[in-house]
Amino acid sequence: MDVLTDNFTLYGEGFLGTVELTVYASALALVLGFVMASFRVAPVGSFRVFGTVWVTVLRNTPLTLLFFAVMLGLPRFGLVLPFEVFAVLALGCYTSAFVCEVLRSGINTVPRGQGEAARSLGMTFTQTLGAVVLPQAFRTVIPPIGSTLIALAKNSAIAGAFSVTELLGTYKTLSELGYNIVWTFVWIAVGYLIITLTISALFHVLEKRWGVAR
C-alpha cells in the first residue's frame, strides 16, 4: 500500500488525465463515427468514397504511428496545440473508424423496407436516417460501442509516451524514485480497471433500458 499512499497525488493526476482523455476522445469518436457511418450509407457516391477511405486508412494504421503523425505532422502545417489536444484528436479519429463500422452494421440490421417506406412518405435521406433508421440501429449497437470505448480507454496509455499526463506514465516517476515496479503496475492496473468497469456498467444500464431483448 505504500506505493499508493505515498504517491496518491501522482496516481490521482494520472488517473484524472486518463479519464479526461477517455471522455473527450470518446465524444469525438462518437460524433465522427456517426458522421462517417452516415457517409458510408449516403446516396451520394463521393460521400461513400470518403467514408470508406476514412475507415480503411484509420483501421489499418497503427495507433502509435497515428500519434506520431498528429503530434509531429500537424505542427509542420502551423497547427500548434497542447499535446493533450493532439492526443484527443489521434485517439478520437482512430476510434471513430471502429465506431463507424459498428453503427453501419447496426444500420444494416434495419429492414430495407423501413427506409423505403419513409422515402415514400416524402422524407429526405437525413430525416429517414435520423428519425427511422438510427433509432432502431442504436438499440443493437450499444454493447459493441461500449467495448470500443473500453478499448479507447486502454489505448490512451500510448499518450504517455508523448508527454501527456495519464495513468500508465506514472510508472516512470515511481521507477526513478525506487519503488517496487510490480506494485507500481498493480495500482496502475487497478486504475484502468476502475475506468473500464465504469464504462461497462454505464453501457449495461443503457442496454437494459434501450437494448434489444434477447
Automatic annotation (TrEMBL):
Q: Does Transferase show up as a keyword for this record?
A: no
> What is the recorded membrane topology of this protein?
Multi-pass membrane protein
Transmembrane: present as a keyword of the record?
yes
Q: Which residues form a coiled coil?
A: none
Its subcellular locations are:
Cell membrane
Q: Which UniProt keywords apply?
A: Amino-acid transport, Cell membrane, Membrane, Transmembrane, Transmembrane helix, Transport
Query: Per its UniProt record, what Gene3D superfamilies does this chain match?
Result: MetI-like
Which Pfam families does this entry report, sorted A to Z?
Answer: BPD_transp_1 (PF00528)
- InterPro entries, alphabetically? AA_ABC_transptr_permease_3TM, ArtM/GltK/GlnP/TcyL/YhdX-like, MetI-like, MetI-like_sf
- Per UniProt, residues of the ABC transmembrane type-1 domain are 15-203
- NCBIfam families xrefs: HEQRo_perm_3TM
Q: Which family is this protein grouped under?
A: Belongs to the binding-protein-dependent transport system permease family. HisMQ subfamily.
Listed name of the protein: Amino acid ABC transporter permease
Q: What is the lineage of its organism?
A: Bacteria, Bacillati, Actinomycetota, Actinomycetes, Kitasatosporales
